[in-house]
Amino acid sequence: MLHSAKPPSIDPQMQPEGPSTSSKRIFAPTGGSTDPGHAVQYAKGALDRDDLSPSPTDQFHAWFKHAVDSKVYQPETVTLSTASLPSGKVSARTVFMKELDDKGFVIYSNWETSRKAADVASNPQAALTFWWRELERQVRVEGRVERLTAEESQVYYDTRIRASRIGAWASPQSKVLDGREELERRVKEVEERFEGQEKIPVPEFWGGLRVIPEVVEFWQGRQSRLHDRFRYTKQEDGEWNIERLGP
């Protein structure tokens, strides 16, 4: 009588591991989608080449106005990314864009002790990323940076409430503190220094930084991640070349 051969036993430790999500702390979040197991679909708009202005700053101004009119929460919120040389290490933080002019996008900060100050001192290039959730729109900006003059920075500085002007003087931004008490002590010292003085000079280490755009991308979310993307690239003659990008 023939007997079927018994299959050899396999050591469980030798079996190949199949796909597993057991070690993943977060896996494929759906972002509040109403379709279980699938990500949110973007369907609030479209972007065509004919919709665009010849200038990216003009186009940004139009989109920003639309964001304001549409009650986007703090549309001036932007992620500023910088990189240190020679290490190439990148850092990013959320700040406010406070000005837009024909030259570029302006943010204000401490340019003596902060991480971004050290980055741009070694590498005068930066990137900005705006995300307007309510409109499913994104704008990306890349370019070189320049400091505003003290006179230019004073104009914006004077619009801040007094406590914020005092704070700009008092905070050694990004430096290690012994505790909250140290910061409060520094604030008190600055308050005493400018007591009774309404006009406070802008600190020499604080002020505006302008990102002068060389590349600007406008992104409109679409269904199935087939987004509309258009990139403006500055040419040597100062004109802008506009191209559609794959999503």
Automatic annotation (TrEMBL):
<feature type="region of interest" description="Disordered">
    <location>
        <begin position="1"/>
        <end position="39"/>
    </location>
</feature>
<comment type="similarity">
    <text>Belongs to the pyridoxamine 5'-phosphate oxidase family.</text>
</comment>
<dbReference type="InterPro" id="IPR012349">
    <property type="entry name" value="Split_barrel_FMN-bd"/>
</dbReference>
<dbReference type="InterPro" id="IPR011576">
    <property type="entry name" value="Pyridox_Oxase_N"/>
</dbReference>
<dbReference type="GO" id="GO:0008615">
    <property type="term" value="P:pyridoxine biosynthetic process"/>
</dbReference>
<protein>
    <recommendedName>
        <fullName>pyridoxal 5'-phosphate synthase</fullName>
        <ecNumber>1.4.3.5</ecNumber>
    </recommendedName>
</protein>
<keyword id="KW-0288">FMN</keyword>
<dbReference type="Pfam" id="PF10590">
    <property type="entry name" value="PNP_phzG_C"/>
</dbReference>
<keyword id="KW-0560">Oxidoreductase</keyword>
<keyword id="KW-0664">Pyridoxine biosynthesis</keyword>
<feature type="coiled-coil region">
    <location>
        <begin position="173"/>
        <end position="200"/>
    </location>
</feature>
<dbReference type="InterPro" id="IPR000659">
    <property type="entry name" value="Pyridox_Oxase"/>
</dbReference>
<comment type="subunit">
    <text>Homodimer.</text>
</comment>
<comment type="pathway">
    <text>Cofactor metabolism; pyridoxal 5'-phosphate salvage; pyridoxal 5'-phosphate from pyridoxamine 5'-phosphate: step 1/1.</text>
</comment>
<dbReference type="GO" id="GO:0004733">
    <property type="term" value="F:pyridoxamine phosphate oxidase activity"/>
</dbReference>
<dbReference type="InterPro" id="IPR019576">
    <property type="entry name" value="Pyridoxamine_oxidase_dimer_C"/>
</dbReference>
<dbReference type="Pfam" id="PF01243">
    <property type="entry name" value="PNPOx_N"/>
</dbReference>
<comment type="function">
    <text>Catalyzes the oxidation of either pyridoxine 5'-phosphate (PNP) or pyridoxamine 5'-phosphate (PMP) into pyridoxal 5'-phosphate (PLP).</text>
</comment>
<keyword id="KW-0175">Coiled coil</keyword>
<feature type="domain" description="Pyridoxamine 5'-phosphate oxidase N-terminal">
    <location>
        <begin position="66"/>
        <end position="192"/>
    </location>
</feature>
<dbReference type="GO" id="GO:0010181">
    <property type="term" value="F:FMN binding"/>
</dbReference>
<keyword id="KW-0285">Flavoprotein</keyword>
<comment type="pathway">
    <text>Cofactor metabolism; pyridoxal 5'-phosphate salvage; pyridoxal 5'-phosphate from pyridoxine 5'-phosphate: step 1/1.</text>
</comment>
<dbReference type="InterPro" id="IPR019740">
    <property type="entry name" value="Pyridox_Oxase_CS"/>
</dbReference>
<feature type="domain" description="Pyridoxine 5'-phosphate oxidase dimerisation C-terminal">
    <location>
        <begin position="206"/>
        <end position="247"/>
    </location>
</feature>
